[in-house]
Amino acid sequence: MIIDFLLREHRNIDLLLVALQRELEIFEHGIRPDYEVIRAIISYFEVYPEVYHHPQEDLIFSKLKTRDPDAAALVGDLAHEHQEVVDRLHRFAHAIDGVLADREILRQDVGNIVRDFIAGERYHMMWEERDFFPAALKALSAQDWTEIASAVTDHGDPLFSETAEATSDALRAHILELEQEAEAERSSVAFLPSMAGKPLNVAETDGPY
Q: Could you tell me the CA-to-CA distances from 145 to 1, 51, 126, 134 in Å, in that order?
């Protein structure tokens, strides 16, 4: 069932959000995060959800509007929700690009943008699982699901699919390796006196970005 597939993709997305949350915590403690991990996460969101995941959901929502317009209206505006996801990603990517380009940007602003991206992604997935998916499962027929499945392009997730290309498998392994290193780094500096009293919402343009 395609809904099961989408739910599994949501769990995979949440794994990346957990990794991003860890890097954000490092950043907000005044320590330089691993920007290679962050950029890899951004690249994933720029390709897989936008090109594959969201279009599948759009197909389902289109069927729902045909089968049960009232239910679709109660669910809300999926197209608007997906545009909000894209906008948050663009703000996130732009902020990180600005940091890496040494543009003056407040640390607090960067943290807020990344935090907003994480929270927005989690809310969006929760909303779909709470409202959208159950409505579709109730309203769509077996034939509807067959038509949706036939319209979906066969693809492999670049990080989590067993059929991912070698370069994607290498990227997945690299992200996991870098996250382990970041975890070790955070543990080693967690109790340094210079960090102990540093506030989390420091607004500054210098420091270890």
A: 8, 20, 22, 14
Report the alpha-carbon distance of residue 68 to residue 152 in Å, rounded.
22
**Cβ atoms within 10 Å of 82's Cβ, excluding its own:** 19
For the record, the structure tokens of 36 come out as 């290679």
Number of domains in the chain: 1
Q: pLDDT tens digits for 111-161?
A: 999 999 999 999 999 999 999 999 999 999 999 999 998 887 656 565 665
Within a domain: residue 202?
Answer: no
The residue segments making up the domain with residue 103 are 2-196
* pLDDT computed for residue 122 by the predictor: 96
Residue with tokens 């962050």: 38
Place of tokens 């691993």: 34
